[in-house]
Amino acid sequence: MDLKIIFIYCLCDDVLKLLSVNDNPQCRMRTAEIMTVGVVAALFHGGNIQASR
């Protein structure tokens, strides 16, 4: 499961780089991390974000 989560993060990060999405320097979490939490919640926890965090 850990490798799947790492793969999802890398995929989200690569997509954001291709789309030239830049994070605000004041952000504490990268956009790819936030996207990863949502995707992992949908895939492994039935959409429950609290369980995936």
Please tell me about this protein's structure.
It is built from three helices and no strands. With 53 residues, the chain is mainly α. The chain has one domain (2-21, 29-52). The protein starts with a helix and ends with a helix.
List the helices and strands and how they pair.
Elements lengths: L1 H17 L12 H14 L4 H4 L1
Helix pairs in contact: 1-2
Strand content: under 5%
Query: How would you classify the helix and strand content by structural class?
Result: mainly alpha
Shape field: globular
Largest sheet: none
Annotation field: number of helices: 3
How far apart the termini lie comes to 14 Å
What is the H-and-E element order?
HHH
Q: What is the β-strand count?
A: 0
Q: Can you tell me the number of structural domains?
A: 1
Quick summary of this structure?
With 53 residues, the chain is mostly helical.
Which features would summarize this protein structure in a list?
single chain, 53 residues, mainly alpha, 3 helices, 0% strand
